Structures are given as C-alpha cells and as structure tokens.
Amino acid sequence: MSAQTLYLSILASSMTLTESPDPAALASVEFVTEYAFDSNVVAKVMAVDQKTLTTAADPLDNLVFKISFNDKIDGSTITELKGRLYTGGGVEALEEQHADNFGYITSKLDFYGALDSQYDFFESVTTSYSASKAAAIKTALETMGALNELGAYRTKQVELAVPASTVTDLTPTELKNSLLDMRDRPRYLVTCDVASLPHIEALAEVMGKINCHVLLDIGNITDWQSAVALTETLSINDHRFWVFWNPNKSRPSNATTVLARKKWRPCVGDLLAQTLLRNARTNSSGIPPINRPVAGYDFPVAFRDMEKMAGVSLDEEAQNALASAGVNVVINERFEGGDRWIYGDALTQYDSKNSALRLTNSAEIETYTTNLVLSIVKKHLLKGMTSFVRDAQDECSRALDACVAAGLLVQPSELGGLYYLLQITPRADDPFSKADIKFSRRPEGCARQVFFEGTVTK
Length: 458
Description:
alpha+beta, 10 helices
C-alpha cells in the first residue's frame, strides 16, 4: 500500500477532513501515513486557548490543538496528536528558522514524524496558515464549536469522518521482500487468507529463509473433510508450518448482552496472543518456556459463549483424520472441574509418524536453539580463526546449558549422557576462512496420547 495523505481544513464556518487540499481553507493540517483506515474511524478536533503571548509572525501560537483518531464502534483511540499550528514549511522550515529554540519546534504539530522513528503513526505532519488570517481562524473555530477556554470543565470538539483508505494487496513478491527487509526478525508469521496459494507460498519461503514459524487459520469451514482436503492441498511438509481450524462461533469479546450475535472468527489471533504471553515469562537467563505447547487445559480459548457451528461433526473418525493432516482444532473438552474450549492438538505439518518435529513445542525448540547458536556464531565472525572457534564454542555452550536448565532439551540416548553435542571446527578444505558447525540435541516432547490399562484386584 502506498502512503495516504489526509488534509484537515479549517474553513470560515466548518471543518473538513479529505484526501485533497481545499483551496478555501483558512488553515490546514496535512497528515501522511502508511497506515490504512476503514470506514469506522472518526477524527475528533479541539483547540484550547492557552492565553499566552504570541508574536506577529505566529499569532496562533497560543492555540493548542488536540486531534485524536478513534474507532467509532468501541470508542478506542487509535492515535492522538497535540500541538500548535505553524505558518507553513513543515519541520524543515522550523529547524531553519528556529534552530536555537528546540522547545518551540517540539510544540508544533509539525514535529510529529520528524524523528523518523519506525513506530511513528504519521510519516509527516505539516501545518499551514497565514498570519493575516489569525483572527478569522479563531472566529471560525468559535463558530463551529471547537475552541475551548483554558481550564474549561466541559470541552467542545468537532467530530469528522475519516476517509476510508484504498488498500491494494501486496503481490507475493512484495510480501516476501517486505518481511525479509524488516529490521526485527519475526518469530511468527500469521495469516487467515487461504484464497491465495502464492501468498502462502511466499510466507513459506520467508519461513525457510529466516527460520521462523507460519501459523495458518484455514477459515470458516463447516465440515472436517474440507478442512483436511484444504490442508493436504497446501503440501507444505515442514515443522515450522502450523495449521489451525476453529469450527465454532462466539460473541464479540466486548459484547455486553446476550443479544449480540454469535459469529465465526479466526482463532490464530488468540493463539498468537497466548503464545507471546507465554514467551514473555522468561527465566533469569532470558529463556522462554517454549517447552510448554500452547494447547490443552492451561491455554483455554478466550472467546465468549462459544458453540460449535451447525453441521460440524468431530467424531473419532474426524479427529483422527484431522490429526493425520496436522490440523489443530479448537474443541470443547470435558474435565473434572467442567468443560473448556481448548486447542485440541499441538501438531505441525511435518510428515512423520514418530519424529519430535511433528510437535509444535519441539519445533519451536528446534528453531529457537538453531537461531540462538547462529546468532552467537555471527557475533564472533571476522575474528582470528582460533579465537572464533574458542569464543563461539564457549558462548554457545553457556547459552545451551541455560536451555537445558530451562527444560527445553532432554537427554538423548545417542549422545553418551550429554544433553547436546555442539562442534565448531575449521573446515577441512579451507581451514583459514571457513568453519563447520554440527549441532545435535533432543527437544522436549508433548504428551498427546495415553494408553490406559486398569486392573481391579481383590
């Protein structure tokens, strides 16, 4: 999506927010953003007269504007700006003309986006007005009910509809490149779109390049046969690719009455939230408890008043077929203290009967420890070969020992009592500039099935 530009225009008796400038505007504020708005966003604009001294060059420096963008459905604030208007030229003009007065620069709305932070909502904000029209602007604000006295108990504001953005979907190549170009490497890529196989393949390609996980919700499907068929059509045999299906409907999370309609909703948002909360519970060594899969009793699905969709059957045949296809289903399970809606399995798309990589937590441990070793090794590159081998081996061993202590790795039978085996050695064909890394370990598994044998004795 290309950047969107919005223009807040103060007219003689009204205020508008449009996608093009209004030549009749007494004052204007130009917003440039990379974010997209839907049709449910409103902008609330108010100004407060601070009763401070002004200059002839900037006679409206006493008016502090507060502009908030809000969701008109739940009233939540999307972003908010607070500052004064400037006579034009943007932050560049401010820096040129007031280089010795940083406080003056930062008091202007134009300062938003000036630091070029990756977290800025607006890329730039540019205000403009003519000093000769200051009185007319103040009168217009009073007329439309947007001007407030300092300390007023009841504040007045103007509410404007924000034009909906025109969003163009990224091509698979654009999607792949945008993810690969991110400064912070993502650990999880989440999608609910199964309509475009090329986009899913692009995510899988990113997954392979940066060694992360893809979480796919296969959508609003009402029979397990279709869920299995769709999953098998993807044919992505990789432990880093996970598939989820929510064959249930529920009320909105903010519903305050039972009259709110129940609808289907994807489950991967809830799963991702619970995964990130789990990952945040690191130990003293900074190791997340990824040995615990986000599934089962301890991770109930947080949707309200859930019920299975009409026509959905999850009998033994269905559950076996879904497990065979590696589909993790949101199901209702009975426990001693009552029933819960849970993620009923912890499977990846890795095709194997008994490999640990079939399990989501084992797959996470594999990618986490691989990325951990590679990131440490990368720090020690471009050193002398001897010190590289020694320093990388020592730091990797300390990090992996912390993983063992956190329960991520278990003792395999093939390593002679060791929890892992890491060897960093100069490469035989070029020992001067290349090295080999061999890393063996066994990740923690996940108890999916139990075989009960009971005996009644005398």
